[in-house]
Amino acid sequence: MATPFFGKRDEAQAVARPAAVNSYGGSGPSSPSSLKSAGDAAAFSSTIKEGGSKLMVGPNIKLKGVEITDCDTLMVEGLVEATMNSRVIQITEQGAFKGVAEVEQAEIRGEFDGSLTVRQKLMIYATGKVMGTIRYGKLVVEDGGQISGDITLTAPGATHQPALLDKSGAQAAA
Question: Which of 23, 113, 120, 158 is 20 to 30 A (C-alpha) from 62?
Fold first, then answer.
């Protein structure tokens, strides 16, 4: 008699499963050593936490209209249109993110368009382009990187309050 498709297996029937092959051709979870062979992904190995939850949107993939939560690291090689609250966002040269993101750290080599709040460090590399409403704790822009929009340095734990403008467009005291 065959074992049911859904249900418990006897320990005697359990068979060791081979290691999964990840998208970079290596076995096991995506680790810094397996990322080195993946072009843009190699540059991101410094912030990927071992054992954390990771979501990778590969090249030519479009992910639209979602809310991403409980994700330690989001790596974007395709297009993501979403709202997210995560620890780290990494956008490769081919990647683009449109929407709202609140993260601890961001590494941008592609494009970000929308509302970005980075509680710690925002890194914009030479090929990176960030547009929209940007809040950051620390900002590093490599020569050639672009940033435009409403850009504000935020103190740790502070909430953002927009500056008041008078009719001439000059900043007024709040």
Answer: 120
